[in-house]
Amino acid sequence: MIYLDNSSTTRQYDQVTDLMADIARNHFGNPSSLHELGFDGSEILRKAASQLGSCFPTGGKVVITSCGTESDNMALMSGTRKLRRRGNKIIITAVEHPAVIQTAMRLREDGWDVAEIGVDKNGVADIDQLRDELDESTVLVSMMTVNNETGAIQPVKDACAMTRAFAEKHGQKILFHTDAVQAFGKIDLRREDFDLISISGHKFHGPKGIGALYIKKGIDIPPFITGGGQERGLRSGTENVPGIAGMGLAAEMSCGELEENNKKLSELNEYLYNGLSTEIKDIRLNGPSVTGTTLDEPGRRCPSVLNISFEGVRGEVILHTLEQDQIFVSTGSACHSNNAGDSHVLTAMGRSHKEIEGAVRFSFSHFNTIQEMDVVIRKTAEAVERFRRLGSFR
Amino acid sequence: MNLNSENSRLYIVRCGEVALKGMNKPYFERVLLERVRNAIACWDNDSHWNGGLMLVRISGDVPVDDAVRKLSKVFGVATVSPAISVEKDMDAIGEAAAAFVRDLRREDDIRTFKVKAKRADKSFPVQSPEIGAMVGGSILSGVPDIRVDVHEPDLKLFVDVRREAAYIYRDKIKGFGGLPLGTNGKGLILMSGGIDSPVAAFMMAKRGMRIEAIHFHSYPYTSKRAQRKVEDLCRVLAGYMGTITMHVINLLPIQEEIVKNCPEDETTILVRRFMMRIAEEVAKKTKNMMLITGEDLGQVASQTAEALVVTDSVVDMPVMRPLIAMDKVDIMDKAKEIGTYDLSIQPYEDCCTVFLPKHPVTKPKLDRIQKSESALDVEGLVKAAVDSDEIVEIKPGEIV
Fold it and tell me: What is the pTM of this model?
C-alpha cells in the first residue's frame, strides 16, 4: 500500500496504538471517579495535557474536543457568544474548511454579518481584503493556517497582527481564530499570538474522534457543550481517555520530529512533482509553487500537500485506477454528472470546472519513501496516458 | 377449543387472483402458503388454508403492525385482517364482539358502528341479517356511548361464521396482490442503480417471476460505492423476493472499443446493444427465460421507439419492459412505495453516463448501427465480458 492521502487522515503511530490498547485494557477508570482507578485515569489526562501544552504557546488552555470540526464550531459559536453586544460581524476566508464555513453560515442565519475574504490564484488569502473588512462591528476573524486542499500557507501571522492593531486602535476586542488542523505537527505554533487554535488528533498520526481547541491565556469563552463540568467546565462529557492519551503522545512525537519530518516531506513533494511534470505533459499545480515550513513564509506551500490538475482526465478516474495498485490519493471534486461536486477552494482560486475535475491531491507523511514516489509517478503517468488517449476520441 | 389463547394472534390472509386460477388453484395455494410461512418464519406460527382463507396464527408478543407488514409484503396476498376467532355460539360471538370494540376504542375514537355478518356455514342456525342484528345489540349494550350508523360508521365490524369457528375483524389491509413468487419462471433484470430498474424488477416479481439481476459498471470510471448502491437496491428488493443473485460485469473494455472505433453520437445505443447481448448470454447460462429492463418509452435517447427496435434486434429472448407506458412521476411514486427511491437518487456516476455523447442519435437506423458495429469484434467482446461475470448473492436486510 502506498498511502498518499495524509491530509484526509494519517496512519496512527504504532506507539500510539499500543498506548491506547493498554489504557483501554488496564486503565479504564473514569477520571472523575474518586477511587484509585479513577485517579489513574486523571493522571493519564494530566500527562497528555502537558504533552499537548508543550506544542502551543505557554500559559494557554488546551480544551479537548471530539474532533477538529467541534473545535471550529466551539471557536466560532462560543467565541462570538459573549461579544454579541460589542458587534455582529465575523470575517472568514473563502477557502476555510466546511467546519468553519458552515458554522459561519449558521451564525449568519442568527443575524450575524459574515464577510468572506477571497484568495489569489494560488489559494492564498488576500490580506488587503481583510484590512477593508475589519470594522468597528467585527468581533472575530477566522483564517486557517494551512489549506487542506492546496497546502497554501495563509498569511495568518500578518492577519493576526493586523487584527490586533485595528482592535487596539479602536479600543475593541476581536478574537483571532485559526484552524490549524492541517498545520499542526508540521508548522511550529509555539510562538504565535493567536487567541484560538483548532487541531485534530488523526491528522498527525494520532487517533480519530479526538481534537482540541487551544485558548490563549486571558481569553475567556463559554463552553460549547455543557454538562458534568469536565475540562474545567469548558467541554463536558466523560473524557475519551485512550483518545486523549493517544493524541498527547502523537503531538509530542510529531512536534518533536517536526524539522526532520518537514525535510522529508519537502523531498518527497519535490521529487513527486518533478517526476510527474517530467513524465506527463499539460499538468497544472494547484497552490503555491515554492514549499515552506514556517508562518513567516505566507504564500508558500506546506510540503505535506501536492495538488495537481491533469488536463483532459477526471481526477476520480485516476484515483480509482491508482487504487487498483493500492495507491490511495484524493480528488478535487466528487465525480457527479452535475457540477455540484466542485471544490470550493479550487473554485475560489478561479480554476475552471475542467481543471477542478482533473485535480488530484497527493498528501504525504514521513512514512512515505522516495521508492514509493517512483511507483506513483509511473502508475499515474500510465493512467493519464490511457485515459487521455480515450478522451482524445471525444 | 379456545382459539384466542393469550399469547397468540390470528390473521386472516386473503388472496386475490390465486382464487381464480381454476385447475392450478391447489398449486398456487400451496406456493402462496409456503411464501407466507417463509415470510414469517422468524416467528412461531401455525398457518394453513381454510376454505378460501388462509388462517395465520402467530404466537408470542409480536406487534400487529410488524406482522401485517410482513404478511402484506408477500406477493399474492390481497388483504390481511388482524382478527379474533370465537366459538360458534351467538352469546359468545356477541360478547367477543363487544370486547373487541372496547379494545379498539382504546386506540381510536369510535362513536358509530355497523356490523356486516356473513354465514359461510349454512348449517349455522342463525341467518346473516339476524347475526348482524344480534351482534349489534350486544355491542350497544356492552359498549358505552356508541350508536349504529349504517351509512357512514366510524367502525365497520365484520363477523364471519364459518364451519369451524366464527371470526371477528375490522380492517382489510391491502397487500401488493399479484401472484406467489416462483409461479411464473425466472427473468434477468438489467439493474443500473437508477430509479426505474428496481421498480421494473419489483413489478415482474409481483407477477410471480423469480428475479436475477445483472449490473454493468465502468470501473475505474465508476466507483465501488456506485456498485455498493446497486447491491443496496437489490437488498431492498430481496425483502420482497428473497435472496437475489446479481451478475456484475465491467463494460469499460467494450466502451473503450466503441469510443475508439465508432461514431460518437451512436455510443449510447451501441453500448445498449452490447448490454443486451451480454445479458442474454448470461441469462441462457443461468436459466433465465427472459430479460427485463426499466425502460420507459421516450424517457431518454436510448428509449425512443426507434432505439428500442435497434436494441431489441440483437436478442432472441423476449424483453419485458413493465414500465414502458408509465409516466416518470408514477414510476417515482412506485419507487417510494417499495422503498428504493431514496437509494436510487444517491448521486453516483453509473456506466450509462460515462462517455455520454453530446448529441446522441434519437432515431437510429438499424443498418447504420450494424455498419458501425462491423468495426468491432462483437462476438469476442461479448464472450470476454460474459467470462468476466462476477456473482454476488444479496440477502434481504436492513440498509445501513
Answer: 0.83
Q: Which CATH number characterizes residue B33's domain?
A: 3.30.2130.30
B355, B361, B365, B370: CA torsion to nearest 10: -10
B349 contacts A337? CB cut-off 8 A: yes
Per-residue confidence in pLDDT tens, chain A, 394 aa: 999 999 999 999 999 999 999 999 999 999 999 999 999 999 999 999 999 999 999 999 999 999 999 999 999 999 999 898 899 999 999 999 999 999 999 999 999 999 999 999 999 999 999 999 999 999 999 999 999 999 999 999 999 999 999 999 999 999 999 999 999 999 999 999 999 999 999 999 999 999 999 999 999 999 999 999 999 999 999 999 999 999 999 999 999 999 999 999 999 999 999 999 999 999 999 999 999 999 999 999 999 999 999 999 989 899 999 999 999 999 966 544 444 578 999 999 999 988 998 999 999 999 999 999 999 999 999 999 998 888 765 5
Residue closest to A42 by CA, chosen among A69, A64, A57: A64
* Contacts of residue B217, Cβ cutoff 8 Å, sequence gap at least 6: B226, B227, B248, B249, B250, B251, B252, B350, B351
The residue of B217, B218, B219, B268 whose CB has the most chain A CBs within 10 angstroms, and thus the best one to mutate to test that interface, is: B219
Same domain for B292 and B147, yes or no, is no
Residue with cell 473494455: B253
Question: Would you identify the CATH topology of the domain A14-255?
Answer: Aspartate Aminotransferase; domain 2 (3.40.640)
- What are the sequence ranges of the domains in chain A? 2-8+258-391, 14-255
Residues of chain B with Cβ-Cβ distance to A323 below 8 Å are 220
Whether residue B260 and residue A335 make contact (CB cut-off 8 A), yes or no, is no
Q: Are residues B289 and B220 in the same domain?
A: yes
**Among residues B141, B174, B207, which one ends one of the domains?**
B174
Q: What's A83's DSSP letter?
A: T
Residue A200's SS3 state is: strand
Longest dimension (CA), chain A: 73
For residues A233 and A223, give the distance between their C-alpha atoms in angstroms, rounded to a whole number: 7
Residues B294 and B162 in one domain: no
> Among all residues of chain B, which has the CA nearest to that of A334?
B348
Asked whether residue B319 falls in the same domain as residue B378, the answer is yes
B17: containing domain: 8-174
User: B180 in a domain, yes or no?
Assistant: no
- Chain A contact for B220 (CB, 8 A cutoff): yes
Residue type, B139: I
A25 vs B: CB within 8 A = no
Q: What is the SS3 assignment for B131?
A: helix
- Of B136, B154, B174, the position where a domain reaches its end is B174
Q: Inform me whether the C-beta atom of residue B221 falls under 8 Å from chain A C-beta atoms.
A: yes
A335 a catalytic residue: yes
Q: In what order do the strands lie in the sheet with A196-200?
A: A61-65, A211-215, A196-200, A175-179, A138-142, A89-93, A113-117
Q: Check A390 against B256: CB less than 8 A apart.
A: yes
Class of domain A2-8+258-391 (CATH, top level)? alpha beta
Q: How many domains does chain B have?
A: 2
Residue B60 lies in a domain: yes
